[in-house]
Amino acid sequence: MTLFQARNARLALFAAAAMLGLSACGGAGTGNAPSPAGGKQQANAGANAMQDRSYKSDAEKLFVEKCAMCHRDFGMGTVVLARRVEKGQEWLEKRTDLQADFVKTAARAGIGNMPRITRSDVSDAQLDAIAAYLEKAGRK
Amino acid sequence: MGSAIGAQYVFTTEEDRIAYSDHYSADETSHQPLGAVAPATVEEVQAIIRIANEHKVPLWTISRGKNFGYGGSAPVVKGSIVLDLSRMKKIEVDAENGTVLVEPGVSFFDLFDFIQEHKLPLWLSVPGNSWGSVAGNALDRGVGYTTYGDHAARICGLEVVLPDGDLVRTGMGAMSGSPNWQLYKPGYGPSWDTMFCQSNFGVVTKLGLWLMPEPESVLGFDIDVDKPEDLGWLIDTLAPLRRQGIIQQSPSIGNWLRAAATLTLRDEWVEPGKPLTESVITAIRKKFNIGWWGVAVRWYGPLEINEATSRVVEKAFAGKPVMAMRPTRWVKGDAPEGSPATGVPVTYPLANANWFGGRGGHVSYSPVLPVNGALALDQYRRTSALYAEYGMDYHPSFAIGERHMTNVNQLLFNRDDPDMMKRVDSFMRALVKDATAKRYAEYRTHIDYMDLIADTFDFNNHALRRLNERVKDALDPNGILSPGKSGIWPANRREKRS
Questions:
Q1: What is the dihedral of CA B465, B467, B468, B472, to 10 degrees?
Q2: B224 and B356 both lie in a single domain
Q3: CB contact, 8 Å: B128 with chain A?
Q4: Is B444 one of the annotated active-site residues of the chain?
């Protein structure tokens, strides 16, 4: 497995407990146990895998509130983008090529598997602030 | 409407109409609303209801509209105005009693952030897509993965705007100033909370919910089995443990594709349009080390009790042909476990919509069965045969409740494949017909199939429908609230029933 796949396998372990219910992937398991619970007790393979929800500015706070659930670690958008873009660029906040206008169009029109974001969910003013934040965030 | 809530919260552009359509649908125009209104207060909700009554305009209530696979924010009736409550985001937590009163716009992430920020010793129960509304999910009978996973069962007290604009509070909330609104469910006389679940009898503006006090430990097992036929004994082993309350959450047994659809792309394994053969399935399973079926089971509470539970469950599995049975362990003081098993919100399971690589989506087919291994095996055989017949990839799960089992199947599809999209509707109808022949009904369904499912509740020539419609007509004589929701139509639109 490549590093990329190993990371995804770790995600599926969470998927286990989520709607995916499946457990078991990656090297964290004990392998094929000869008898029930034959392996030794261990910490969950997903330990310490919380999404970072911190922020340092009002614009970043808006990004966390409105976008991070999908676009920081373990988010649906990050997982899907990792299949399509250059390594490291699946995190919107690390992108070096994002234009504010593109961000706004993607949010309002939807893109790929991303649904359209309504103006009630994210107002035009909020989207302006988020788009400006993303245009700069990765270029620091 | 603009004068009632502010013109900036009335959304009527073409872009808005498209934004509120069902983005998983093959034909997004079929349920396109006329626009949306987004009130911020209960008074604004009442003002909108009054205007809708004056003009006899149908509203379609959504909390946050993230109910993907069931229609998202789109109404049953094309041209309805979406009553979008996503701006109503108040949270009141009673940390001592472990309860919260939320408005409909509060998402699982919002509530999680609030609890973290205030360092409260409370855990959420979250669904696979935690972007959605806490209140909306509970009202639609959504589920999570902890012992608080039956969300509708944890509702305690509602505030509701009725279709004539009247405002009621249910349970102990009916006594003004009661300290018991979120503590005692029944109230006095008839209890009304469940009347507002999956219904169109009112607009819930506040919902009380019990939250789990942070446990000292979470232990459990991640169990994989190797063959499709292992489903039977796996269910029969877990069922008594669940029935006796030794396992208090609902273990959800999913097949290999439930995991694989978030891990990899179909095209990496087989040519588009070609079926997934056993050798392909074996190769995918081998690469990711996953069982044909897999299940995560967990117990919550004091470590000494949980360790004893682990021994009891291990004994129940002694001699069973498991492929893998891995103990899991989290104890207070450990780093956060970070998965829905410990109430951490997530969205990555939605990545299964990317299984075909392009613009994907799904609808769910979710019949309820008795908890029984032989019945589950029969269900698996019939359902997987229908998936094969319609050229779709079988994506089932069986969640074990105290007395029932919910068999949630995803119909994963590729919106860029018109041939496949044409098959989805007839496939869904074939599945429902198959379940109905066994006298199984669905617990929840997509806006396209609300009448189809309501029709299967046929005792005494659809007496339940007559009851629902008598209530509807009494409360909502102008038929303004969410016509068609759960197959309940007001008198002035009954001819619309499909």
A1: 130
A2: yes
A3: yes
A4: yes
